[in-house]
Amino acid sequence: MMERPLYSEAAFRNLPPLIEVLAARLPESGLILELASGGGQHAASFARAFPSLTWQPSEADPRMRASIDAWREREGLANYLAPLAIDMAQPKWWEAVTVRPAAALAINLTHITPWAVTATMLAGLGAVLPLGGRFFLYGPFFEAEKPTASTNRTFDHSLRKEEPLWGLRSAEVIDEEAERQGLLQEERLSMPANNLLLVYRRAD
């Protein structure tokens, strides 16, 4: 096990507003599936903030899973589960989810992965979420009817320079793909630092 869990100052800063909006929208009980949990810092804070919910992190990178385990050891929370080894680049990744989640969450994922990962993620969520279950997608996005902040334009350029398949995604395009998978847009919430929280609900 990793001796010290990985820590991000940026992740720490965006937690309070995320917890505030999620508190009004998460179910009262059940399992929350967090996709691409990274080092587990968010999951640790969410498990602490929502003791009536069971937090299920997941991550493809073994080093990140080791950090998640280190956070679990440090926090000692019964509702913070061991991470699932889920790689959303793989077809039918959702077969690794053994307990149907009441809701799901992904943070800062879509802009640092190819578009195919977002499409496969949404397909899987259409399969595992119950009717009425919500999916929360947080990060920076483009919006068709709103000007893009200069910091987000610069960020998008730097991402595409590093990896041409990365970059900020259109919120409207994600809405369309989500709808194809039975996930209907419920809310689009403005968050600090030019981020958005996209909220979808599993429809019939």
Rg value: 16 Å
Number of strands: 8
Uncertain residue ranges: none
Question: How much beta, percentage-wise?
Answer: 15-25%
Number of separate helices: 6
Q: What is the makeup of the main sheet? A: 6 strands, mixed
Order of helices and strands: HEHEHEHEEHEHEE
- Cα(first) to Cα(last) distance is 42 Å
What would you call the structural class?
alpha/beta
Would you spell out the secondary-structure blueprint of this structure?
Layout: H1 9-23, E1 30-35, H2 41-49, E2 53-57, H3 62-75, E3 103-107, H4 115-128, E4 134-139, E5 141-142, H5 150-162, E6 169-170, H6 171-180, E7 183-191, E8 195-202
Helix pairs in contact: 1-2, 2-3, 4-6
Could you explain the architecture of this structure?
With 204 residues, this protein is α/β, with parallel strands linked by helices. 37% of the residues lie in helices and 21% in strands. The chain has helices at 9-23, 41-49, 62-75, 115-128, 150-162, 171-180; strands at residues 30-35, 53-57, 103-107, 134-139, 141-142, 169-170, 183-191, 195-202. The protein has a six-stranded mixed β-sheet with strand order 2-1-3-4-8-7, sandwiched between helices. Helix 1 (9-23) packs parallel to helix 2 (41-49) and helix 4 crosses helix 6 (171-180). It starts with 8 loop residues before the first helix and ends with a strand. 40% of the residues are buried. The model has no long low-confidence stretch (mean pLDDT 95).
